[in-house]
């Protein structure tokens, strides 16, 4: 092994790999990557303190990292992912690659909770299948509805990106638990309209420059924006604010 390879181990598992012989661990990142971001991404996300963790296959493949978190059990949600450390952890693997077996997974997690064990739930990237299992567990164990459970997981692992197919399975599971489902799209649950007024950055500016809007004399129905069949009426108040903002900006530039 060359000297440059000995000086450049894998950033996550710490092993020295023979890249010239195509021995790849799957953890390697370019040398230009930020080391601090690597350290953060190397750790699984804590969902419930002292009990439930959520992560990727990279997280699950590093036994020493899991041991530092006190993790003793691993729930593998992807049948094609190998259980690499059977001598160090107790594994449970879901056997269906398309349909998530929520009841099977939750039964394992409930047993881990009773045994006061720390468990990692993982899929390949930690973004889709494993977060869905964790969301389903929260619905069952905490009595939360789907939106609340999803938000709890999303806040603790922002990279979560549940697919439409898996989202549909979660809605069906919610209906199974509560008899109804009022969640149509999990991707929209993180969007919270602020309701704050748009001020164009002028809320703290008070210029002693009189501005008269030429649009104030136009009735709302006589001013349109755009052309052809796609024309849409714009409120006079909004146009006046925009014109005022443009005028003030021009005045500032000339000062």
From TrEMBL:
The keyword Transferase does not apply. InterPro entries: Dual-sp_phosphatase_cat-dom, IBR5-like, Prot-tyrosine_phosphatase-like, Tyr_Pase_AS, Tyr_Pase_dom, TYR_PHOSPHATASE_DUAL_dom. It comes from the Eukaryota. The keyword Hydrolase applies. GO terms for cellular component: nucleus. One of its GO terms (biological process) is auxin-activated signaling pathway. Coiled coil: none annotated. One of its GO terms (molecular function) is MAP kinase phosphatase activity. Keywords: Hydrolase, Protein phosphatase. It holds the Pfam family DSPc. Residues 100-160 form the Tyrosine specific protein phosphatases domain. Residues 43-179 form the Tyrosine-protein phosphatase domain. This is Tyrosine-protein phosphatase domain-containing protein. It comes from Gossypium stocksii.
